[in-house]
Amino acid sequence: MELPYTEPYKIKVVEPVRRSSRNEREKWIAEAGYSLFQLRSDQVFIDLLTDSGTGALSHHQWAEMMLGDESYAGSTSYFKLKEVINNWLDMPYFVPTHQGRAAENLLFSALIKEGDLVPGNAHFDTTKGHIEFRRAFAVDCTIDEAGNTTLLHPFKGNIDLNKLETVFKNNPKEKIPLCIITVTCNTSGGQPVSMQNIRDVSALCKQYGIPVFFDAARFSENAYFIKMREEEFAQHRIKDIVREMYSYVDGATMSSKKDAIVNIGGFLACRDKDLFEKISMYCILYEGYLTYGGLAGRDLAAMAQGLKEGMDFDYLESRIGQVAHLGQQLADYGIPCQIPTGGHAVFVDAKKFLQNVPKEQFQAQTLAIELYLEGGVRGVEIGTLLADRDPVTRKNRYPALELLRLAIPRRTYTNNHMDYVAACLANIYEKRDRITKGFRIVKEAPIMRHFTVQLERI
After folding, report:
1. What is the residue range of 36's domain?
2. Which residues are catalytic?
3. Model confidence at 5, in pLDDT bands (50, 70, 90)?
């Protein structure tokens, strides 16, 4: 008999969670202005809002935190992190930051000016927000296949080279400060980018003299998909795949709260010494001295250890396997999702799920609220609310995909939790034809509104 798969870890500490009643949840979500972000964590039973900073640390990471050096300058914890980024990721220069959006702020402060264009594969919310805050424009060059949730394609995060070259040909080089490859591509459903596409994008950017950077929040998960889906790399170690990935780019921003499995932290790495010195000025101004970057020494040490653990094949197989388990459960119930399942989350196709709710009434947000009411499960909308308004016309932008993201924290939940989530969605799916109205906006911020938006039922 073939032995069944099991997780490559055992549980040492548990946190109790409380089941609430539907009446309680009706009250709580109304008081929160129908914003999942405004709920208290103790009002949530299973929290799939994000995989960012919500994973369980290993005992090695906890040990490193106890060894953390809290010196203001020259902390030994900093040098542990420096060793990993220099040697494991092959990046000679870096600064730590308190999280990924801080790294974006430093990089974009150094590179982007008003009117610039930043092409990439479906920039995520903070990336697009930082670009548009500077009155520049994020240009989505993702392949068209990413917009078809029913199409099986191994690398739906890929950049369309024709779209990218059109941007390069039709605009002066001085207007394009960089190209961004998001690995994996969150907005298209946690979908990976192939090594061949990374190579081709890098070559095209070099041809036109445009720097290329990773948004590297989930680079290890991307490397796992390359190993599993790109024949050339089937026998390669994850570490070797990662080094080759980074060899094609000029730098990277990272929210280490994802693939480094820490509660807080990030970094900005690059190859250009002049750019590093410019970034260093902004780091000291916004984040802190160069060897702590807004973090405690214990956070730097946990990040260094977590980066290495996040590149372990057995861990990745278990982590991505749990996401695939939830995706398969939903498929068995006939629930429409982005396929193939991504690396960090399952993305439910709200357009197909709630066909009777007009797009102007925020289908994915409506589905997210229904899921919370059904079982206390908190997901997040990746759709019209997140897409924000057009910075010029101020009209709502309606993206090709209207998704409910169920982001799974690392090493935190069991497959029994995933089965519960799937059953909740199955119950909603059975009564989907009776859900005909969504929500309208009562109050919104001028940018990145989805974090603080207030809604009311229609």
Report:
1. 22-51+317-457
2. 72, 124-125, 215, 217, 258, 450
3. confident
